[in-house]
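Usage example:
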Amino acid sequence: MLKLALKLIKKKRKKYRVTFLCIVACAFFIAVIEGIYMGHHAATFDEAYYYAGKYDVAAYVDPEILASYNFYSEKGSLTAINEVTYSVRQDKIPDNTMSEAQKSYMEYNYMSLMGIRDASDVIQTYDLSEGRWPENTDELVVSLNFVLEDGRSVRNGTVKIGDTVSIQYGIRKNEVGESLQGEITGPETFEVAGEKEFRICGIFSYKKLLSGQHICYGYYKYGALEPKETALYYVLNEENYDELKSFEKNLREYGFQKVEANGHIETALKSLQSSDYISSIEDGMFILEAILIAVAMGIIAVNQYQNILEDSEQIRLFRRLGAERKHIYFLYLTPGVVFIIVGFVTAFIISGMFLKAYGTVLLNNLFSYGYAPDYFKVDLIMYLISFGFILLESFCLILTVVKKELRIYEDGQQGRKRKKQEQIKNLFGLARVLNKGFSIRRVAKTTIVVFALTIIPICFMTGISVYRGAEELIVEGEVDFVLNLSGTNVFAGEEELRNIGGIKSIERFAKAASIKLPLSREVLGEEVYREMKSKPWYTELFNEDDELIWVVEIIFPDEKSYNKFYHDQYTGCFPEYDEYIKSDSVIISVNYCFGEDGSVVDIGKKIAEQYGVVKLHSFVDNDKSVELSVSSSYLDKHKESDGVFATIIAPPGLFDEFFSGAEYHHMVQYAVNAEPGSYEELSRELKDFAFHNNMAIMDYYDANKEHRNYLIVRVTSLITSFLIVLIVCFIVLYSVNALERISKRKQYTIFSLLGIKKSSSVLLRGYEDAIYIIDGLIIALVFHIISANTFLEGLYLYYGLRLNLIFLSAVICLLIYTGLFFLFSALPSVSGSRHVFYRHSRGEL
Amino acid sequence: MLIELTKISKRYGSGETEVEALKDIDLRVNKKEFVAVMGKSGCGKTTLINILGTIIKPDTGRYMFDGNDITKYSEKKLATLKRSSISIVFQSFNLVDELDIKNNIILPFIFDKKEYDKDYLESIIKDLEIKDILNKYPDEVSGGEKQRVAIARALLVKPQLILADEPTGNLDSENSEKVVRLLKKCVDDYGSTVIMVTHDIDMTELADRILEMSDGKMIKGE
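Running the assembly step on the lines above writes:
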């Protein structure tokens, strides 16, 4: 039987050649889509910062290595390893890391040594309030917020210069014992790895926000620090250098690779360029991958369907000769299986080579991924899953078709009940009648239109929707600089900002103030309440009424409403915060990190519930923080307002600030236009401006540069999505038309025998396609509106239904569709009529 | 003279598999003549019908239709001729399943965007006794009725030539007789010329002339 099946394949080898190439093409695209995605993804900042590690000593920054922290600490070889977060500028990486690390300070609870550098070079400043900077390895300086476990602190005077403090250091672990690195995703414990005594030699202060941040602990996207200026690495005390070398050796034995940091920092930074690109296309890519899988299945099924119909005489003959159903199934399933296997193997080889070249040549030039080519490879597991899907689905499709055909030949066609038909008056009426009811091709063609109409706008919108507020101005190239400032008196600085030479115009987007918002125990829920209470850094956040104090931000869309808030606050006329929250004039952004897995969402919702928020506008839970932007009817009215959703993530450390006196902080975002040629000088002045006004620069964009990057993202996103949709449409339509020619073979043969003009025949098919398109348009629009509000919002993108874009997409898709229709109408008509003559001459018709 | 075939030949395949379906066929058919073509399977009857119906072209020879040499006609001109002057009735009826009987009959006119002669259709429907099935679908009627519908569709265009390729092949004797009588009626009442291919000698009784073919040649009645 296998021999017979292979003989049949050989007999139709010309036809199977096309099928094979289509399978290879589909498998190739599937592999490439996954490979490109994985490659890009590996090169985005989330991953790449692992490579931006250390300098002199060790740069093992890898989740697995972090997980092995505990292992090494248990073996007593990690006592010397201290985790250091360090703020560096991309262009000024310190050479003397070791010595700088010794001049470190410690933050509360976690052993965080922070290297201190020349204040003018870093975006945060440290001012020595008392004493001196450390000179010996057993000395440290502490911040004004330094609080010991037993409650002693610098602020209340129970800790002072000259005191000896014993600091525990270790690792944070989640509930399953994995070490945590910055991201607080669930209940955690702090496992002591060691203890060391230090003598306090000085007390220092620093600008807000940055101080409390565990820099590069995953918050980089949300405010205080830009990833561009951050690197994570480890250092150790000099006295333990030998021990670290031993640690390093151990790691090597475990297969971990040491990465030299200097070159990779730049890599990591440049890879940022691709993160938006990736996020803009990844969803579309996977949808397209699903389509390609369907296409591959369709090709196999269509091809076999065609074969089955063409071989109808043969099948009948086989049956008369005693072949059982299973033999017929085997004969027609074998080619599908053979071609899928061979096609996938071939595509695997080709796509592997392509991805290698892509990663090495193209992207290396575009994005400068120093290490990226290693990651542009076929994801074998995903590839095999796709293969399995196609194999299984094709199997089922072919089986269905064979079964159907066998039934027809064996039982005869069954009559169906139909409604009375009106007299057909024209070709459109005929098309309508001929395409009533459910059919594969009808569904397939409609689906194409639906996908085409939804994917292009979604991909496109995803590409540009990631930019909001001031960033939209960057995308549009309308500003030169964007400056996000934070401090206690940012508003006093506005006039000074205007006085900086070279600035042509300033646009302020939003003002924000943080307030404390009590959340009652009842609303919080007993379980969450207890969880919060049990955490050392949360217990202080409960007021005397046992309400959880939440830090929220009120974003004021205009200066007037902000001033009212400001006035009310200081004149004591500010009645209740919740009144403000309920008002129409503010947007509330609740930002917090919670250790309870999932509780961030629940609690965020509870806030909304407690304060009677009319509508949740967006709700972001990135496992590490929650941003709850809630709004009353204001947002409904002004969705396109330029109010920026300024987000300041408040890790535990920040609450020290709030409880130690500085109850409020403010943030403001400016977009600045500058005189051409003054950029360099202006950028320096902007930085100085911030420092001299007691502000911290939260973000600082060279908007022109960003604009260029965004343009790349935007254009590549659009072109990529457009081309992929085009290719997919082309392939699917080809398959569908092939199917149509087969399934309507009898109908078109009759038309041909009746002497129907070719133009009439083409027109009839045109009308049929018009019906599909109209169906598709209606479904696509509904689907698009739904997906726009769920899919895009689900991605935390700000999306408004843009009719002009949908209209544009519809026009493009109609052009594609119409063009393809005429192309395919023209091509198969020759072979179609030949087919008719052939069959008729054989007496089959 | 409606049809004049001179030295018509047709081959299928090539090399060892080559089959000479028609060999130097000469044939003359007058207007309003009912001609029956008989012969064994594979003798070339269907090929002859296909050539007469302009479905395929002969390899050699000349085909004169109503005084015009149509062997040199373009595809477009042939299609026009076929729509206006030639109708074919098949053994397998060739009705469109998605259309009801009435729409099947008027199908050629839907494509041509022309009005059909309603009175003429009425008379055909009456003569062919298919009035009761006009609103039914092909798979809801009998084989004999299907063939009558096919004849009605053929007649509605008022063709000069009706080609019937074994029209009784799928019918019982009673329906077969009916169909042949109808074809004869097409000649007598509607003025068409009918060429009918059949195996059954009984079906040739009403024919004006019987042609017999063997191995691609006309051996009788030429």
